[in-house]
Amino acid sequence: MLVILDWDGTVCNSEARIVSCMQRAAERVGLPVLAPEAVGDIIGLGLPEAIANLFPEAASDQRRQLGDLYSEEWLAARAEPLPLFDGVVATLDQLLSKGHQLAVATGKSRRGLNREFVDHGLGGLFVASRCADETASKPDPLMLNELLQETGCAVEDAVMVGDTVYDLEMATAAGMASVAVSYGVHHPERLATVKPRAIIDRFPELLQWPPLVA
């Protein structure tokens, strides 16, 4: 099976840094500094879509400036690599040992994901990846459809794993099964409204989802 993983909030524990970088960037550009919950809610979207959701009243040039400043803040903060959630590396290794393939579908930029691959030495584990600046942002299913096309995998032989309704809605739109993780930015009750096949509380529990056991 092709296991397609969201990155931020699913594989990588990055919520606090995303929130703080967006808050600092907003302050620098003269926009309101939103509560952490409001900023966290848009994690998973592409950066332009996230900013449009957070600041619908902002002019287009102000949004562009905010995006540039957010990227600047993110680069300044990356001296300390972000932690992966507990059990991620061991679980990925076990999935591969069972014959499954791994891919990534993320709201990050390509440059950002590649840096994460280098920081954690994980890039070689994934057969394919798609980033929001290369294709349509979640919840549009385009990045999943492109991953299926690139890998030659049938949709019924793939699963999307993510921590937000954007991940799950994207999978639903693609006709793909989904598994939600409860430890990310969206609460389990909200995730349940999109009807994933399972909601897991720890990343290693992915190995217990029946289609991935064999």
Q: How does this structure look, described?
A:
With 214 residues, this protein is α/β, with parallel strands linked by helices. It has two domains: 2-13 and 83-213, Rossmann fold (3-Layer(aba) Sandwich); 15-77, DNA polymerase, domain 1 (Orthogonal Bundle). It contains ten helices and six strands, in the order E-H-H-H-H-H-E-H-E-H-E-H-E-H-E-H. The chain has a six-stranded parallel beta sheet with strand order 3-2-1-4-5-6, with helices on both faces. Strand 2 (101-106), helix 6 (110-120) and strand 3 (128-131) form a beta-alpha-beta unit. It is globular and about 55 Å long.
Order of helices and strands: EHHHHHEHEHEHEHEH
Which regions are unreliable across 5 or more consecutive residues at pLDDT < 50? none
How many structural units, i.e. domains? 2
Class by alpha and beta content: alpha/beta
- The best one-word shape is globular
In CATH, the homologous superfamily of the largest domain goes by the name HAD superfamily/HAD-like
Give a quick account of the main beta sheet: strands, pairing sense, barrel closure. 6 strands, parallel
Radius of gyration: 17 Å
CATH architecture of the largest domain: 3-Layer(aba) Sandwich
